[in-house]
């Protein structure tokens, strides 16, 4: 490629000149290509270690004038062909022009200007993303694709110099991190190391330091471990690895491929060696931290942040921290944790103005809100730019809100990610549209639309002026004082005093309001007015799997509470759960959602409960309530790790009993609501909405610590469960003003002696004292490690489930089925990011059983067939693969799932002769094929499926016409090529073909005499005119085959005009090996380089008369039994097809190569050089 001219002082150092003229020199890197000796090895090693561009571009062109010692590099190339094209262009277009100049400086200026002009023209046609990437990075991406055979779709994110430990020996080289692969390449003194690992195969990612391995990164897969060290910045590399592995796990979990952010702003200047994808991932990581810190919605994008100070009127001081600005919010977080946090929605902002600077208050900025609050920021580095950005966002905010108010809710947001939809889903077609909701299911006049269920059912209760009520009044007064001092609503200052009030318990009258505030649900509800009402009307009345599960669980949701012992509470719960299941079908409904939602409805209106449920499922408890409760399993693993760190003695004992995994799932999924008295558990929910998941971990550890002595004395799991159950049953809230609610788990309590009561406030206080050092960022790091383990464990479980479900229907062994499933799924995943004929969503349906979820198209199937097939059919392999794919595709959707992939039709490739032959004939004859091998497994399968309709047998196969018979012969000829018994097999198939042709001719006589049965009619040829009847008194089948084979001696094999593209392709794919005449088959020997042709619609059958435009004989046909009987007369054919093939070796070879689809062999750079020349 042309490169920007650069000075070269030593032109011949490590380079060899191959061509030269007065103005240009073409050079090759020493050691590249053939030979090179020790010099080549040393140069190659230096190029790898120093990341020289010569590694990927071993050819270059220099410009030189006269006697000057200064050279200019103007072009480089990865192959001799590429650099030769550039050289010829220079000779054709510049040499004559340059000879006119008199001044050498003018020549150099002209050449440099010409090359820069060419580069500028090329850049215009490049994509925007490529324009953003610097030349050095594009060069590295080209190098990666060349070394590892990656396609254009595979994008490099970043690359690092490091050492890869192979045994105890480090190999210095380069680590390439792409979107889907981790690759390493090293070339030292002739020894090459190439490593490719798919991110979806990674089971563990650790950063550690040992005596053997200095500060290093360990990448673990199911089969092995890889160690990398000697990084310049190991933390940056490890964070990027974590991000890419997380993307891969999301792909396994939700089948979501990586999509680059098209809205990413361009950098002010080109960043050296930083790709657009790397900037994209860095921006995503910052956005995730920003959203998690302030509990913002998934579509919020951080625009920037800056250091500043905030004036806090309650403390009369300036607090140092950072200001964050995004498209809808201005946020502040103090440098000291819990000192002060602030969230200002732009929808609440009324005035933004710059105040006068002073030595005491430099660069101040004042922001006023609609509720008369004013916030003063100072020490802003670039205040003018910040004000401009805030003004830009404010100009968009009113228009957007007006649009939300006046337009349909379905247009409220279009940026939500698929996993967390924030807009109304499209309305699916419903039967009986005319009957759809004429009745309004939700209106603002409903009691539950105005207040929580607890308020409704406590109206009639007489006011109790006892000590508990007095305590509740004191709490309310404390909060009112806090609101007066720190503000009320979204713009409230959040400090350590706020947390202290939460830990003391939120008053029941304020619980719904503060839950909405602390969870961030209030922001979503404010920006999506009437969303819930419209969603309910769309969702109600539909019958889905989720609605059936919801109806089944409605009366199990807090049945002990009087609010859910009547239709009002049940109807409200039904509407909220159904609306959310319709909003997010990826989650739908999961058990435990009903318990949490019923508690939300006690303190909130329906709409508020809905948005709190959205915040829980999509932000605060990610992946908790999907079909496999992945999030809860991840946090279960985190809890086990925390127990090992904080309570090591108890951890060992509990692991032996297997208790931790049993208890933690119910604790986390319901936030203790199902295992603790309601009045106590709701206090934990208060803390959870303010602090997040860390509170649940703290309390869980405190519960184990409080029962440590008893648990250590346990001898079995049941005893430990009883101890913990009794303890939690007796965690009481002595300050509650609500009527006592009987707790279902109280049945565990022994009647002999009631256990002591535990004050829930003391439990919370203890959890903060003993385990309050837990940090949210540490928990997220632990979650990442556990997520890799959990998802890969679930994938292994799914694989075992698939094998168990299909093992009785398949002749493959269990180990073979497992390996086939791995290969099949790898093809599916690879098609998701390397392009395919259909989208990933069309290929993956999580509602189906595991063995039917993943599907591949004919292209991926062809690759698997070529790798696993026991025969090498040359160019005819694609044709045979296409026929088999059409056979396996039972529902004709152009995709096959794993169940279809391993049926007996696929097994026929490794099965005896009678199950295989129908695959080898023409495509239309095999679409209706269903073969059964009648052994004991057959009878077991028939017994299990006796209610299913009877499948077709061999006798139900249609008869084979002449065109299909020719296709069969062509396929067989290709299969026998390069076989050790090739000549014997050709002899046998020629004999069988002659016999079958005579049988077909004899059958014609019976057909012409009127004895043809209607059900035995052969399938008609596609778009072929009716052929004139052949004279049956001639040479018969013997002469037909003789003429067909003799036709193969034509010098210029050209298919006739009326032959289809596929048939013409098949014609050229016939084996080039000789065919030996045998028996009564009369034909001359065919030369070794002859290609058999003319077997299509207008092919050679029938001699010269047939070539003049006649069609296959429509009356000629044979049955499958006749083909099978004829083949069984030849021992060579019987032995060939009955020979058992070992699929394990094929799968092992395929597995070794499946990490990446290599386009060329890249085993060494020397081979690449030879290929390029």
From TrEMBL:
Residues 404-431, 1007-1038 are annotated as: Disordered. CDD domains: PH-GRAM1_TCB1D9_TCB1D9B, PH-GRAM2_TCB1D9_TCB1D9B. Transmembrane segments: none annotated. GO terms for molecular function: GTPase activator activity. It comes from the Eukaryota. The keyword Signal does not apply. GO terms for biological process: system process. Keywords: GTPase activation, Repeat. Residues 505-692 form the Rab-GAP TBC domain. Residues 405-415 have a biased composition (Polar residues). May act as a GTPase-activating protein for Rab family protein(s). This is TBC1 domain family member 9. It comes from Pygocentrus nattereri (Red-bellied piranha). The lineage of its organism: Eukaryota, Metazoa, Chordata, Craniata, Vertebrata.
């Amino acid at each position: 490629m042309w490169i920007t001219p650069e000075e070269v002082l030593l032109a011949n150092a490590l380079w060899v000149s191959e061509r030269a003229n007065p103005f240009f020199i073409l050079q090759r890197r020493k050691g590249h290509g053939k030979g090179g000796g020790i010099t080549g090895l040393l140069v190659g090693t230096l190029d790898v270690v120093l990341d020289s561009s010569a590694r990927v571009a071993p050819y270059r062109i220099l410009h030189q004038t006269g006697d000057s010692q200064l050279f200019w590099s103007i072009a480089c190339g990865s192959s001799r062909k590429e650099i030769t094209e550039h050289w010829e262009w220079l000779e054709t277009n510049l040499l004559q022009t340059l000879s006119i100049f008199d001044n050498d400086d003018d020549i150099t200026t002209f050449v440099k200007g010409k090359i820069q002009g060419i580069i500028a023209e090329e850049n215009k046609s490049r994509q925007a993303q490529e324009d953003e990437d610097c030349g050095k990075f594009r060069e590295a991406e080209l190098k990666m694709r060349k070394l590892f055979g990656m396609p254009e779709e595979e994008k490099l994110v970043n690359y690092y110099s490091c050492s890869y430990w192979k045994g105890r020996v480090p190999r210095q080289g380069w680590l390439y991190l792409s979107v889907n692969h981790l690759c390493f390449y090293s070339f030292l003194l002739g020894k090459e190391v190439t490593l490719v690992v798919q991110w979806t195969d990674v089971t563990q990612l650790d950063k550690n330091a040992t005596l053997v391995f200095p500060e290093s990164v360990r990448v673990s897969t199911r089969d092995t471990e890889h160690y990398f060290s000697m990084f310049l910045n190991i933390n940056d590399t490890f964070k990027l690895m974590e991000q890419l592995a997380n993307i891969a796990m999301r792909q396994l979990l939700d089948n979501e491929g990586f999509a680059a952010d098209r809205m990413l702003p361009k950098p002010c200047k080109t960043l050296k060696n930083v790709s657009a994808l790397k900037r994209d991932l860095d921006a995503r990581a910052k956005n995730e931290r920003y959203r998690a810190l302030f509990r913002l919605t998934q579509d919020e994008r951080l625009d920037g942040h800056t250091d500043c100070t905030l004036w806090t009127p309650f403390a009369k001081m300036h607090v140092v921290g950072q200001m964050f600005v995004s498209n809808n919010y201005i946020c502040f977080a103090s440098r000291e944790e819990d000192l002060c946090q602030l969230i200002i929605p732009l929808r609440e902002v009324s005035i933004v103005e710059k105040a006068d600077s002073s030595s005491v208050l430099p660069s101040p900025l004042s922001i006023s809100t609609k509720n008369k609050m004013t916030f003063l920021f100072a020490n802003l580095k670039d205040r003018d730019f910040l004000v401009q950005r805030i003004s830009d966002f404010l100009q968009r905010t009113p228009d957007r809100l007006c649009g939300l108010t006046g337009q349909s809710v379905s247009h409220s947001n279009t940026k939500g990610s698929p996993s967390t939809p924030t807009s109304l889903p499209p309305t699916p077609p419903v039967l009986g549209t005319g009957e759809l909701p004429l009745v309004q299911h939700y209106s603002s006049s409903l009691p539950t639309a105005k207040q929580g269920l607890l308020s409704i059912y406590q109206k009639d209760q007489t006011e109790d002026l006892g000590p508990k009520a007095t305590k509740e009044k004191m709490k309310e007064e404390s909060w009112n004082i806090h609101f007066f001092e720190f503000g009320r609503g979204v713009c409230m200052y959040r400090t350590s005093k706020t947390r202290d009030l939460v830990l003391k318990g939120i008053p029941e009258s304020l619980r719904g309001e503060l839950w909405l505030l602390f969870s961030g649900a209030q922001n979503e509800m404010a920006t999506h007015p009437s969303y819930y009402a419209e969603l309910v009307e769309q969702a109600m009345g539909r019958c889905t799997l989720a609605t059936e599960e919801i109806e089944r669980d409605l009366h199990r949701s807090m049945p002990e509470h009087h609010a859910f012992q009547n239709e009002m509470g049940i109807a409200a719960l039904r509407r909220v759960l159904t609306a959310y299941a319709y909003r997010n079908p990826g989650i739908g409904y999961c058990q435990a959602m009903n318990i949490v939602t019923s508690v939300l409805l006690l303190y909130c209106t329906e709409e508020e409960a809905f948005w709190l449920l959205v915040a829980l499922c999509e932000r605060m408890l990610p992946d908790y309530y999907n079909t496999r409760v992945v999030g809860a399993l991840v946090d279960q693993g985190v809890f086990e790790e925390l127990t090992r760190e904080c309570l090591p003695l108890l951890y060992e004992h509990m692991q032996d009993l297997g208790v931790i995994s049993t208890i933690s799932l119910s604790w986390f999924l319901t936030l203790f609501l199902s295992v603790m008295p309601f009045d106590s558990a709701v206090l934990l929910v208060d803390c959870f909405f303010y602090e997040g998941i860390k509170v649940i971990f703290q309390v869980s550890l405190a519960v184990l610590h409080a029962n440590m002595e008893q648990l250590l004395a346990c001898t079995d799991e049941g005893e430990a469960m009883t101890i913990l159950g009794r303890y939690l049953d007796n965690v009481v809230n002595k300050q509650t003003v609500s009527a006592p609610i009987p707790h279902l788990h109280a049945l565990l309590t022994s009647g002999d002696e009631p256990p002591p009561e535990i004050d829930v406030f003391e439990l919370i206080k203890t959890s903060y004292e003993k385990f309050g050092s837990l940090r949210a960022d540490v928990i997220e790091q632990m979650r990442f490690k556990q997520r890799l383990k959990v998802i890969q464990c679930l994938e292994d479980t799914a694989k075992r489930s698939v094998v168990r479900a299909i093992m009785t229907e398949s002749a493959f062994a269990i180990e073979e089925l497992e390996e086939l499933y791995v290969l099949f799924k790898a093809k599916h995943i690879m098609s998701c990011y390397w392009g395919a004929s259909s989208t990933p969503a069309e290929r993956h349906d999580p509602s189906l059983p595991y063995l039917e979820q993943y599907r591949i198209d004919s292209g991926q199937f062809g690759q698997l067939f070529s790798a696993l097939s026991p025969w090498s059919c040359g160019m005819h392999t694609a044709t045979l693969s296409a026929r088999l794919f059409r056979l396996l595709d039972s529902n004709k959707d152009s995709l096959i799932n794993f169940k279809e992939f391993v049926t007996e039709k696929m097994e026929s490739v490794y099965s005896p002769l009678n199950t295989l032959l129908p695959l080898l004939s023409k495509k239309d004859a095999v679409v209706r094929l269903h073969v059964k091998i009648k052994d004991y497994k057959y009878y077991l399968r028939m017994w299990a499926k006796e209610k299913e309709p009877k499948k077709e047998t061999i006798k139900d196969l249609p008869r084979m016409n002449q065109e299909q018979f020719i296709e069969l012969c062509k396929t067989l000829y290709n299969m026998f090529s390069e076989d050790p018994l090739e000549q014997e097999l050709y002899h046998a198939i020629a004999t069988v073909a002659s016999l079958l042709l005579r049988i077909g001719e004899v059958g014609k006589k019976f057909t012409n005499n009127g004895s043809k049965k209607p059900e035995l009619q052969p399938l008609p040829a596609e778009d072929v005119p009716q052929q004139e009847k052949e004279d049956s008194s001639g040479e018969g089948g013997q002469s037909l085959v003789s003429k067909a084979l003799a036709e193969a001696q034509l010098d210029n094999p050209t298919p006739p005009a009326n032959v289809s593209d596929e048939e013409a392709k098949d014609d050229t794919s016939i084996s080039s090996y000789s065919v030996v005449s045998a028996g009564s088959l009369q034909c001359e020997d065919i030369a070794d380089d002859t290609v058999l042709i003319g077997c299509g619609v207008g092919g050679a059958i029938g001699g010269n008369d047939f070539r003049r435009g006649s069609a296959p004989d429509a009356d000629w046909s044979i049955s499958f039994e006749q083909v099978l009987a004829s083949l069984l007369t030849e021992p060579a054919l019987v032995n060939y097809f009955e020979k058992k093939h070992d699929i394990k070796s094929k799968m092992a070879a395929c597995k070794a190569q499946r990490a990446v689809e290599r386009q060329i062999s890249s085993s060494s750079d020397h081979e690449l050089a030879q290929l390029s020349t």
